[in-house]
Design a protein that fits this description.
This protein has two helices and no strands. By secondary structure, it is an all-alpha fold. α1 (5-44) packs antiparallel against α2 (50-74). The longest helix has 40 residues, at 5-44. The radius of gyration is 19 Å and the shape is elongated.
């Protein structure tokens, strides 16, 4: 089976997307952890946490979506070698 140029470019784009998603997910995880610490600090000092918790939930939802997108790209058929 031969591989045409368009297929090769598609695979390279998918690999680039995965690499960028890996970076985005790692950054998202760091941000979620920082927000979770902030929520905890606010709670420990008796401050209002609702807005911080809502933001944390939105960040977690976004991270979940990024992971789902990553999974979809990984499930794309690969080109046989």
């Amino acid at each position: 089976m031969s591989i045409d140029q368009d297929e090769l470019v598609g695979v390279e784009l998918d690999q680039a997307k995965l690499a960028q998603l890996d970076l985005d997910i790692a950054e998202g995880e760091r941000r979620v952890a920082a927000q979770a610490r902030l929520v905890e600090e606010l709670a420990q000092t008796g401050q209002e946490t609702m807005a911080a918790q809502e933001l944390l939930q939105a960040m977690q939802d976004d991270l979940k979506d990024l992971r789902s997108h990553q999974d979809l790209i990984r499930k794309l058929p690969s080109i046989p070698t």
